[in-house]
Specification:
The protein is an alpha/beta fold and about 500 residues long. The chain has helices at about 20-40, 55-65, 90-95, 115-120, 125-135, 150-170, 195-200, 210-215, 220-235, 240-260, 285-290, 300-315, 425-435, 450-460, 475-490, and strands spanning about 5-10, 45-50, 70-80, 100, 145, 175-180, 205, 235, 265-270, 295, 320-330, 335-340, 355-360, 370-375, 380-390, 395-405, 420-425, 440-445, 465-470. The strands form 4 sheets. A 6-stranded antiparallel beta barrel has the order 11-12-17-16-15-18. α1 (about 20-40) links the parallel β1 (about 5-10) and β2. Bound molecules: manganese (II) ion.
Length: about 500
């Protein structure tokens, strides 16, 4: 998906310096786009679009960017001075994500050669400040990246922002399929679907479980045979209950057909509404997540959508991303961990080893037969857990840095996939902070997405972003949340 998008490079100047300077600016801007593309460090292509010299030119390129579906964002840079009143019309019109790359063509000041001609041509320090002022004055949500355009950290920051911008495009087109309503009486999985669609683009609609059952019944034994042999290739089959596995294959094919026929990239269901189904989809849901579909349990459409957005933004990065739930704590001093799992549905993209297919009784809900599921341990490594909650009239996104470990015990009687981690700064403070924020028990756990990517995305979508990191303290966070809440009331 990332390769379907491009970013437009618009370089600011003005007519004051004459045609020679403008020709040089244009040639260099095109060269810079090529070199950055050839670096192999950016997930999407940069296209040099124009050297902007007038209000009309800037307005036109902003209009074009808005209407071009391939354009996921605009990157601007001021090679020379570019008086910023020229940018007002264009910036007020621009609806695409906007990044100000504050850089300079030459790395060094050439000691002997520098004269006033050189200064006129190479004055990004001057021009980028004028541009920064107008964007600040317009209160434009924007990403500012400062540094030499060939440096690895600059390209890395730009690449992260590009992923967030593509995530914004994905989000604005995202359709979510709900089977059944939210779990009865649960608060955090509720939310304003109209308000969320206005803000994030998510189209969240419901389909009857009966329609899914009909779709499942239409799956042929031959199709199930074919999928079953894929299961045998990818997993160890640790059950004799072949029928339960075949039933999950039927569910996987049925759900996928329904999602694809409606163009949905995420779905939710609930164990309280499985009318006509024999098993809660476990293996089926886990497999669909591994294919990039988002999922949320108990009707949690927000976490379903967020799972698919984060999977889309981190395409090709590896590491794994899954729907997750904080379940239980290990509170031994010095070895304090959170154990995450779900009834069944953890994505095998986070598995440390080869998953096993097992069947076990699931007492909760309407399961008439033992659901098959993938059981595995999550891998060790740094990651993030992320949640979006409805604050009433607005959304809050919370991201917390975590350090996942190999689970410190075997837990041979736990019949589900599990991930064990330490939230930062430590379990006690980290869980305290999470609860202060109102973060959900459902999260997206990702080894590929970090707080930079998620905050870039939240800025583009214009929602509150709270980051819980190694430096977060509950008293300071409480103050931040209070002030944020006030500030968002004025927006
Ligand atoms: Mn749950």
């Amino acid at each position: 998906m990332l390769k379907d998008y491009e970013f437009w490079f618009v370089v600011g100047s003005q007519t004051l310096y004459g045609q020679d300077v403008l020709d040089t600016v244009a040639a260099r801007a095109a060269e810079m786009a090529n070199v950055m593309n050839d670096s192999g460090k950016l997930p999407c292509k940069i296209v040099y679009k124009c050297t902007a010299k007038s209000s009309d030119e800037i307005l036109n390129v902003a209009r074009e960017a808005n209407y071009d579906a391939r354009c996921a964002g605009v990157i601007v840079w001021m090679h020379t001075f570019s008086p910023a009143k020229m940018w007002i019309d264009g910036l007020c019109t621009l609806q695409k994500p906007y990044c100000h790359l504050a850089t300079q063509y030459n790395r060094e000041i050439p000691d002997k050669e520098i004269d006033m001609d050189f200064m006129n041509l190479n004055q990004a320090a001057h021009g980028d400040r004028e541009h920064g002022y107008i964007a600040a004055r317009l209160r434009m949500p924007r990403k500012v990246i400062m540094g030499y355009w060939q440096d690895e950290d600059v390209l890395d920051e730009l690449g992260v922002w590009m992923r967030a911008a593509v995530g914004a495009a994905f989000s604005r087109a995202l359709k979510v399929m709900r089977f059944g309503d939210n779990m009865r009486e649960v608060a955090v999985t509720e939310g304003d679907k109209v308000g969320t669609q206005i803000k994030l683009g998510w189209q969240v609609n419901t389909w009857a479980v009966g329609d899914l059952v009909e779709q499942m019944n239409a799956v042929s034994e031959k199709e199930i045979d074919a999928l079953y042999s894929e299961y045998e290739k990818d997993y160890d089959i640790a059950t004799e209950n072949t029928e339960a596995i075949r039933y999950q294959a039927r569910e996987e094919i049925g759900i996928k057909r329904m999602l694809d026929s409606e163009g949905c990239r995420a779905f939710s269901n609930t164990f309280q509404d499985l009318y006509g189904m024999e098993q809660l989809p476990g293996l089926a849901t886990q497999r669909l997540m591994a294919q990039g579909y988002g999922y949320g349990g108990e009707g949690d459409w927000k976490v379903a959508a967020l799972t698919s957005v984060i999977k889309a933004m981190t395409e090709g990065l590896g590491g794994g991303t899954t729907f997750m739930e904080d379940y239980t704590y290990h509170l031994t001093p010095g070895a304090e961990y959170s154990l995450g799992a779900h009834m069944l549905e953890v994505c095998p993209s986070v598995a440390a080893g080869r998953p096993r297919i097992e069947t076990h009784h699931l007492g909760i809900g309407m399961n008439r037969k033992d659901p098959a599921r993938l059981v595995f341990e999550g891998r060790a490594g740094r990651g993030t857990v992320c949640s979006i909650i409805d604050m009433g009239g607005r959304l809050r996104m919370i991201a917390q840095d975590i350090e996942a470990v190999k689970p410190i015990m075997e837990m041979p009687n736990l019949p589900v996939a599990r991930v064990m981690w330490k939230p930062l700064p430590d379990l006690k403070t980290g869980a305290n902070c999470w609860i202060l924020c109102g973060g959900a028990h459902h999260t997206v756990l990702s080894y590929a997405a970090d707080a930079r990517l998620l905050s870039d995305w939240a800025r583009i979508m214009d929602i509150e972003f709270v980051h819980i990191s190694k430096d977060t303290r509950p008293d300071e966070l409480e103050r931040e949340l209070f002030l944020n809440d006030l500030a968002w009331k004025f927006k």
